[in-house]
Amino acid sequence: MPVPQFLTDLLQLLLGLAVALLLRRPTRFHNAVSIALLLPLMTAPAIAALMWKLMTNPSFGILSYLVSLLGIQDFKWASDPATALFTVVLVDIWVYTPFIMILLLAGLRSLPRQPFEAAALDGVPATFVFFRITLPMLAPYIITASLFRLLDSIQQFDIIYAMTQGGPGDRLMVFQVQAYLEFFQYTNVGKSAALLMILWVITNILSNIFIKNWLRLREHAHRHQ
Amino acid sequence: MEHVSLTGRIFRGAALTLILLFFMFPIVWILLMSFQSNEQILRIPPRLLFEPTLANYRALISGQLQTAAGNLEIPFMHNLWNSFVLSSAAVVLALILGVPAAYAFARFKFRLGETIAFTLLSFRFAPPLLVLLPLSLYYQQIGLNDTYAGIVWVYQLIALPLILWIVRGYFEDISPDIEHAYRLAGHSWGETFTRIAVPLAGPGIAAAGLLSFIFCWNNFVFALILASADKQPVTVGALAFVTASGIQYGQIAAAIVLSVTPTLLLALYAQRYLVEGLSLGAVKG
User: Fold this and answer.
1) A73: alpha, beta or left, given left = phi > 0 and alpha = psi -120 to 50?
2) Chain B contact for A118, CB < 8 A?
3) Does A73 touch chain B (CB under 8 A)?
4) What is the pLDDT of residue B164?
5) Band of the pLDDT at B1, cuts 50, 70, 90?
6) CB A144 to CB B282 under 8 A?
7) Among residues 161-220 of chain B, which lie with CB inside 8 Å of chain A?
8) What is the ipTM metric for this complex?
9) Which domains does chain B have, with CATH numbers?
10) Does the beta-carbon distance from B1 to A25 stay under 8 Å?
11) Going by CATH, does the domain composed of A2-223 fall within 1.10.3720.10?
12) For chain A, which residues make up each domain, given as ranges?
């Protein structure tokens, strides 16, 4: 499960970066869009899972209906082992992409303007500006936001538990969901504790790296008061 | 950047439309569903125009649900009340503990100061179950299991780091000279804190409080483990509600709408501070 989780984070990073770039200029319309995109992030993840469950219901769900219009019958979403992961990833993207988007947008808008103005004067091509100026200057934000997401997503519980309780079968057994079920359903406390200890070691290492990057960003934000 | 070609503009417009559609559609659709009767929901193909009904909300507010198995009493409004009580109490407690602590971390250098501040931050990233599973056993022994106090206590894991680190930033941005001048005028340390520092950091403290309220409200796993039906907040209550109401989809949609409305409204109100809250004070919006 860690590999799909990592890929989900990567997808969210790319999508979040793309949206942030689209909304970069602080026009009224762009600001309104960025505020609207906050709503999924402010929805409780467990409730978000219930919303998508209603939309993917096989008998009346709007998404099941739309998929059937495309000629795909009997798409079972979260209840089919083959598509359960895809469905949960979709919900995860819906909830958490705005997180990346809003942090990178704040980062983009706080970058100094001189390098971009100089590049525009010299007629530097856009791709060069993006890869040689924008990305390197945005890197601290990208790293902090991604580590933050990685830390949270490796502990994913709410969406998966509310949507499938780790099923179908053991298709979506991430660390915390399995630890929960081992503890309460199978009263296998030892195994549950072992799983959580492994998770704790991973999150501890990650959070140490994260805090270093986070602190650098924080100092930067306060210098520019 | 000022010169965007026509195709570029069309591409941007189309991309933004798709993005808005993807992120807004679920919220709009569930809102529409909450005003539909079950027959309207089950209709294929779904219709965008329908005669709205308030029956779902009426059933939720009265707590009387008509199901296939007969009348069912589900106190969903009590879950909403629980969410409100738990989140407010947690935020008040976290403000009482966190604001003075944030001030101390911002103003004074003391032994292990930074270590303690970072330990508090790292609580935010510890796996919740690692704390909750052992805690649930202790709670049963000391009688805190399934009490408001017990849940409010663990909600500090969410609220305290957030308040501590955001408010600390606001205190650090206030020039110490103002406080020194006030102290020189003969006022005590405590007076300086309550009359100068806290009012100046006021907007930051309010924002940190609002954000912690949102995050406490949205929390699911803490109450799932520590609370029984009587003390459950909406996040856990909604899940139980789905199981109980079975196929009353309109009522489920209405329950979802009721559980997310408070946080979405608060988020819109506090949106200027959200970047700061989401990054635990590292990025300013």
Assistant:
1) beta
2) no
3) no
4) 93
5) very low
6) yes
7) 169, 172-173, 214, 217-220
8) 0.90
9) 6-73 (no CATH), 76-278 (1.10.3720.10)
10) yes
11) yes
12) 2-223
